[in-house]
UniProtKB/TrEMBL annotation:
Lineage, opening ranks: Bacteria, Bacillati, Bacillota, Bacilli, Lactobacillales
Alphabetical list of Pfam families matching this protein: LytTR (PF04397)
Gene3D superfamilies: LytTr DNA-binding domain
Zinc-finger among keywords: no
Ranges where the HTH LytTR-type domain occurs: 43-147
Protein name, entry field: LytR/AlgR family (LytT)
Alphabetical UniProt keywords: Cytoplasm, DNA-binding, Transcription, Transcription regulation
Annotated coiled-coil segments of the chain: none
Record carries keyword Lipoprotein: no
PANTHER family reported for this sequence: HTH LYTTR-TYPE DOMAIN-CONTAINING PROTEIN, TRANSCRIPTIONAL REGULATOR-RELATED
Superkingdom of the source species: Bacteria
Length: 147
């Protein structure tokens, strides 16, 4: 695949153009990554009525609690006004993975995975917290990230 930068002083607006012989899953994923890179570098959150904006890479985990969506950033809990399924599509797949219907974690924030005696997958986080991954999502994680 060739990558080129064309500088044109007459250009009014920068654009990214990808020419492909046919549409494939690889190129669909590439387009999603480019759009995310260009559009979504920060996430707006709130805590106690105050608004904050964080770099997406600073987010440790995203989870639902009592029908609200929260994220953890450096040990602090913030509310997000997006739904978990929206965040699953928004967050970069090379940095985050969904471990259950209600939780998405930053892969750099995971200490280790462990199979519990009951057959559930424990996800031990770097802050010492323990959460659980569903079998369905664990299968997907193994398939996509631990090839």
């Amino acid at each position: 695949m060739k990558v080129a930068l064309i500088v044109d002083e007459k250009c009014q607006e920068a654009s990214v153009l990808v020419n492909v012989p046919k549409r494939t899953l690889f190129f669909d994923h590439l387009m999603i990554k480019i759009r995310r890179l260009l559009n979504e570098q920060q996430l707006d959150v709130q805590r106690e009525g105050e608004l904050f904006s964080f770099e997406i890479s600073d987010i440790d985990r995203v989870f639902t609690d009592n029908k609200n969506v929260f994220c953890m950033v450096r040990g602090e809990k913030y509310r997000i006004r997006k739904r978990i399924y929206e965040l699953a599509n928004l967050l970069p797949v090379d940095l985050f993975f969904q471990i259950s219907q209600s939780e998405i974690v930053n892969r750099h924030f995971v200490e280790k995975f462990s199979l519990s005696k009951t057959g559930l997958y424990q996800v031990i986080l770097k802050d010492g917290e323990c959460t659980y991954a569903s079998r369905r999502f664990m299968y997907k994680i193994k398939k996509e990230y631990f090839k």
